[in-house]
Amino acid sequence: MRHSKKGAPTNSAKFRAIKAQNGTINRMEQLLNLDVTPYTDKIIAEYIWIGGTGIDVRSKSRTIAKPVEHPSELPKWNYDGSSTGQAPGEDSEVILYPQAIFKDPFRGGNNILVICDAYTPAGEPIPTNKRHRAAEVFSNPRVQAEVPWYGIEQEYTLLQTNVKWPLGWPVGGYPGPQGPYYCAAGADKSFGRDISDAHYKACLYAGINISGTNGEVMPGQWEYQVGPSVGIEAGDHIWCSRYILERITEQAGVVLSLDPKPIEGDWNGAGCHTNYSTKSMREDGGFEVIKKAILNLSLRHQDHIKAYGEGNERRLTGKHETASIDTFSWGVANRGCSIRVGRDTEQKGKGYLEDRRPASNMDPYVVTSLLAETTLLWEPTLEAEALAAQKLSLKV
């Protein structure tokens, strides 16, 4: 009995500590979920921009006096470019220009996410601002007349936090060979579905034009699709969706990787296949327009490869549903080609093409604008066109 009495306070203290800890967590969650809309007109705007690597997303928050409906209603802002690799320390101010707004799925209410691009104080786009150049291409009357549509398939890999090894894989080891994981269900085949589903719903809430998602061929790898989106909107939606995915994986304690070949060996890489069509491609006779576009793309193959993501040479090997990085090819329903045309498009004589070359870490502003520029604005010489048509067996 004496032993029990001595032990009782210790157990009680532990219980009180756990209860207090849970109480603190609950109060934190209550504050995070607090809807301030009934109490103030003010909103929180999360300004998002692309950092110095060209692939990292940065953000910071700002209070805005009232809800807004258009980015033009938002003030410009600035940040320390010397801390993101985008400006020297002695002249570090970089200016953010709001360009697109989305509803904030994390804070809810009237709060927003703001996609920005970056400029010097003198108003010049900084080197990592790829949106500015893309906007110039998409504002060209010839491009606007063709209403370019994009459907982008963003693949990504989920990694365990401390070991940077794919989610669901044994640490330092490998799962069974590829085959059972693609679009699969089951605890031994699907790893990270909650993250994919949470991201799907968050994107729908935000107003991102997400059109689907699926588990990929390599276990721990997923894909979501955004589109069809018109012009510059495609890049804005992909960057915002990437930011949301970074935030969700942050909360889940999982690392997001956009590396195009995260695991060497007999494993699929991660791409960002870009489906593309113009008004002329979507109308009767569009297949001939698609063939002309493919011809142009073949002549600028190396220009596109240089702009399609870092480390892509590790992915584009001619294996694992890719074409060789050194050789341009196209085919109907062939996933081993640079450009794939769907069987549906061939049968209907109109539709779209799929550029399978972009890596998972590509900049969507660069890829979408380059596709439009090469197929709508760039004109090859007649000699080059004839040689390319012969080589690719294209009749245009």
Automatic annotation (TrEMBL):
Q: Which InterPro entries match?
A: Gln_synt_N, Gln_synt_N_sf, Gln_synth/guanido_kin_cat_dom, Gln_synth_cat_dom, Gln_synth_gly_rich_site, Gln_synth_N_conserv_site, Glutamine_Synthetase
What range(s) does the GS beta-grasp domain occupy? 43-123
Single GO BP term = glutamine biosynthetic process
Pfam families documented for this protein: Gln-synt_C (PF00120), Gln-synt_N (PF03951)
Main localisation, per the record? plastid
One GO term describing the cellular component: chloroplast
Q: Which reaction does it catalyse?
A: L-glutamate + NH4(+) + ATP = L-glutamine + ADP + phosphate + H(+)
- List the SUPFAM superfamilies: Glutamine synthetase, N-terminal domain, Glutamine synthetase/guanido kinase
What is the recorded name of this protein? Glutamine synthetase
Instruction: Provide the species name.
Output: Senna tora
